[in-house]
Amino acid sequence: MAFKIDPDKCLGCGACAGSCPVEAISENDGKFVIDADTCIGCGACAGSCPAEAIEEA
């Protein structure tokens, strides 16, 4: 299952992008987004997010 980032909670810190093993996370206008087609559902991003902005989609 893929994950998604709540843009209202995202701090734009990039911790999630650095933890993603398949580079499914990119920056868009100061916030980060997850490409659901690339995401492997490992949850590494959710564990690294200090704002708890990432959840299962």
Structural write-up:
With 57 residues, the chain is α+β, with helices and mostly antiparallel strands. The chain contains two helices and four strands. It has a single domain (3-56), classed as Alpha-Beta Plaits, CATH 3.30.70.20. Strand 2 (25-28) and strand 3 form a beta hairpin.
Counting structural domains, the number is 1
- Give me the count of strands: 4
Strand and helix order:
EHEEHE
Radius of gyration: 10 Å
CATH level-two architecture = 2-Layer Sandwich
**In DSSP terms, counting alpha (H) and pi (I) runs of 4 or more, how many helices?**
2
The average pLDDT score comes to 97
The portion of residues forming beta strands comes to 15-25%
- Helical content, roughly? 10-25%
Specify the biggest β-sheet.
Answer: 2 strands, antiparallel
Short note summarizing the structure:
This protein has 57 residues and is α+β, with helices and mostly antiparallel strands.
Key structural traits:
57 residues; alpha+beta; Alpha-Beta Plaits; two-stranded antiparallel sheet; 4 strands; 18% helix; 25% strand; globular
Summarize the SSE layout with pairings.
Blueprint: E1 3-5, H1 15-19, E2 25-28, E3 31-34, H2 44-48, E4 54-56
Antiparallel strand pairs: 1-4, 2-3
